[in-house]
Specification:
The protein is an alpha+beta fold and about 450 residues long. It has a 16-stranded antiparallel β-barrel with strand order 3-4-5-6-7-8-9-10-11-12-13-15-16-17-18-19.
Length: about 450
């Protein structure tokens, strides 16, 4: 063997032995680590109760993630008013998880400034101006027990139209429970707006001019306490009420009860075209469909202590053109005090046209006579414009009114909603300017 081969043999042998020794050392370290991991896994299995420890831990984590996602989705849906626990949908609402109990809160606030000019007055100033809190109302409504039982409570914290609630302010307005009997029938018990006038059926926050017409205030039944049966179908609705007395609220039982032998009020309406919801507003906004509604009402009351008896009737028609509308109503009463009989009557015509998406020009003419030779006639023209910041939710109305005849005491009393004041009997030509902010939400 040569020297070169000998050196190569010993070098290769040395490297082989060294590599084997190093590899054996590494293998021993790896085996040691594997043994430690096996021991740790065995310990975890024992502590977790079996071979499913990893599956159960993972399932628990997944359940937690799903729960968080569902809670987040429920919170988001409630803000959209889609049947969840709380949010805003035509009012701020709360609801139980099953929907059987709910409450919606609504607010109406109307602030008005008026300037009134009279050429002659029996007392006071010939020129009057100032602000007034015309209406501040909060209402609560919803359902109880299940969706077939509904309720409403409305309270005026401030109310400037004394004639509607006999001078009371603050005052309880609506306070009733209503039961859906099925097949379009319903039963209402409590205090509620009486079914009679088409104009008065519209809520004060949805009016076209700043207030109800003076003629409507004269002839409408306003509120009553009692029971009302209703029927609603696709094209026909009707309601009939039996109450203590017409235009009476918060009456308590006493030794003079009842105030009347009987008091009834009823109304029926036929929808020729359109949908019922659009007639909840006195105006017809751009984009709404064509609508035609014909309605009528009657009332009948006999006093329990005197010979007084009243029978009244009204008829009205509404045309909505989707950006313009016309409304007309007539009223007639038969008043019998046992000695004389009179027949007061009146009518009102009003309408509006949108000249822009949020600007409407409006006008109304009304006429009324008490047919008694003393109270005179009421004849007035009102016109102006509305700026709808958010339709009837937030709007500004500016009106100018002119009374062609002298405004006598009875018409001034019923004209409080429109700020008419009593004239001297020989003077006519009373006029006024109004500006009103109305918020209904």
């Amino acid at each position: 063997m040569s020297l070169t081969k000998t050196v190569g043999f010993f070098a290769g042998t040395t490297l082989a032995i060294t590599g084997a020794a190093f590899g054996a050392e590494q293998n021993n370290d790896a085996l040691s680590q594997i043994a430690e991991l096996k021991a740790e896994i065995a310990s975890l299995k024992t502590a977790s109760g079996g071979d499913q420890w990893l599956t159960e831990q993972r399932a628990s984590e997944i359940r937690g993630i799903v729960t968080d996602v569902l809670a987040d989705a429920d919170t988001r849906s409630s803000l959209q008013g889609s049947g969840a626990g709380s949010g805003y949908n035509g009012g701020f609402f709360l609801s139980s998880a099953d929907g059987n109990y709910s409450m919606k809160v609504n607010v109406l606030e109307q602030i008005r400034w008026t300037y009134n000019d009279r050429s002659g007055v029996p007392a006071g100033n010939a020129n009057n101006w100032g602000f007034e809190n015309k209406r501040t109302r909060m209402s609560w409504s919803g359902n109880i027990v299940d969706s077939s039982w509904t309720y409403k409570v409305a309270y005026y914290f401030a109310y400037a139209n004394d004639v509607e609630f006999d001078g009371a302010s603050p005052v309880l307005a609506d306070a009733f429970v209503k039961k859906d009997l099925g097949n379009g029938l319903s039963l209402t018990v409590g205090q509620f707006k009486l079914p009679f006038s088409g104009e008065y059926a519209v809520d004060a926050g949805n009016l076209q001019l700043n207030d109800y017409s003076t003629v409507s205030n004269m002839f409408s039944d306003n509120y009553g306490q009692g029971v009302m049966i209703g029927y609603a179908a696709d094209a026909f609705q009707a309601s009939a009420a039996y109450v203590n007395a017409l235009d009476e609220t918060n009456d308590q039982f006493s030794n003079e009860t009842p105030d009347t032998e009987y008091a009834f009020s009823g109304r029926a309406a036929i929808k020729i075209q359109g949908n019922w919801d659009q007639f909840n507003n006195a105006q017809s906004f751009k984009g709404e469909e064509m609508g035609i509604l014909v309605g009528g009402g009657i009332n009948w009351e006999k006093s329990n202590s005197t010979a007084d008896e009243v029978f009244g009737a009204t008829a009205d028609i509404t045309f909505d053109f989707g950006g313009a509308n016309v409304f007309g109503a007539i009223y007639w009463d038969n008043l019998d005090d046992g000695v004389t009989t009179t027949n007061p009557y009146g009518f009102t015509v009003q309408g509006g046209v949108f000249v822009a998406d949020d600007i409407e020009i409006v006008g109304r003419y009304e006429f009324g006579s008490m047919d008694d030779g003393a109270s005179g006639e009421f004849s007035a023209l009102t016109f102006g414009a509305n700026w709808y910041l958010a339709q009837n939710t937030a709007k500004f109305g500016a009106n100018f009114g002119y009374a062609f005849d002298s405004v006598t005491g009875v018409w001034a009393e019923n004209g409080q909603g429109n700020n008419w004041l009593e004239d001297d009997s020989a003077d006519d030509g009373q006029w006024m300017i109004q500006a009103q902010l109305s918020f209904s939400f």
